[in-house]
Amino acid sequence: MIVRLREARLLWPAAMTLAGLAALAGLGVWQVERKAWKEGLIARLAARTKAEPVTLAAALEEWSRTGDVEYLRVTARGRYFHDKERFVYAPDPELGPGYHVYTPLEVAPGGAVLLVNRGYVPEAKKDPESRKAGRLAGEVEITGLARRPGSKGFFTPDNDTARNLWFWRDLSGMLASAFGDAGRPHAPFFLEAEAREVPGGWPRGGVTLIDLPNRHLEYAITWFGLAAALLAVFTAYAVSRLREPKA
Q1: How many Cβ atoms are within 10 Å of 164's Cβ, its own excluded?
Q2: Which tens digits make up the pLDDT trace of 161-189?
Q3: pLDDT tens digits for 63-95?
Q4: Each residue of 130-161: pLDDT tens digit?
Q5: Is residue 246 very low, low, confident or very high in pLDDT (cuts 50, 70, 90)?
Q6: CA torsion angle for 133, 196, 172, 76 (degrees, to 10)?
Q7: What is the secondary structure of 103-119 as a DSSP string?
């Protein structure tokens, strides 16, 4: 067989085809494994969002132990610093241009704070004076989902601290702009408040979206399809070469 392949000048094409098939099949198998991993991750995060909430102390302990509190339901108590709201630009597909209102929650008197995303306000309600009723006074209890600090994307605009206009969730930067460079002790993650009745209706909580793309099956089919196409092309080529009379 090897002699015949050499005579038909197919030895190197066959070797390259085998290498290509191995690479493409390996990529396909990897995507199948990634699909199983992604489905497990989505199921785990979905279960977290429906579980009974844990205390802030328990969430902080989990963070220090594993660093993984993403989408963990957490309940915290404290007093809001409404005068230190930070606004993250977050247009709503149905409600139009608007912002997510991040408000520091003092969870220990004179001490640590937790930065809470209280929810969405439209452009017309950005001014706190237009939603005084929603600025809850006194000690409040808030339940929401823990979220890790954000990171700046390649095409994301820079945050404008002078105008209190944020395009990505810079935890340390937002707190520094609110409390000064010295800052304050704070939780190393955000809390995104769940939907609840708020006097005046704003901010509107429940803005968390669990949208993890899972196109790994599509990618696997693509890689396996390319492998099949490569095999078909080589087979057709090899048959034509083998049918030629020997030199």
Answers
A1: 17
A2: 999 999 999 999 999 999 887 668 899 99
A3: 999 989 999 999 999 999 999 999 999 988 888
A4: 898 988 889 999 999 999 998 888 889 999 99
A5: low
A6: 110
A7: EEEESSTTS-EEEEEEE
Cα–Cα distance, 54 to 61 (Å, whole number): 11
Place of tokens 């989505």: 42
Q: What is the DSSP letter of 161?
A: T
Which two structure tokens, joined as six digits, stand for 128?
A: 């706190």
Closest CA to 215 of 26, 18, 88, 38: 38
Domain boundaries, the chain: 2-41+214-242, 72-201
Token pair 């085998």 in the structure block, residue:
18
In contact, 175 and 109? CB cutoff 8 Å: no
More confidently predicted of 236 and 9: 236
> Number of C-alpha atoms within 13 angstroms, CB side, residue 137?
2
| Domain 72-201 fold | OB fold (Dihydrolipoamide Acetyltransferase, E2P) (2.40.50)
Dist. CA 194–CA 192, nearest whole Å = 7
Residue type, 118: R
Closest of 200, 177, 188, 198 to residue 74, by C-alpha: 188
Longest dimension (CA), the chain: 95
d(CA 207, CA 191): 11
What is the enclosing helix (H) or strand (E) of 103?
A: strand 98-106
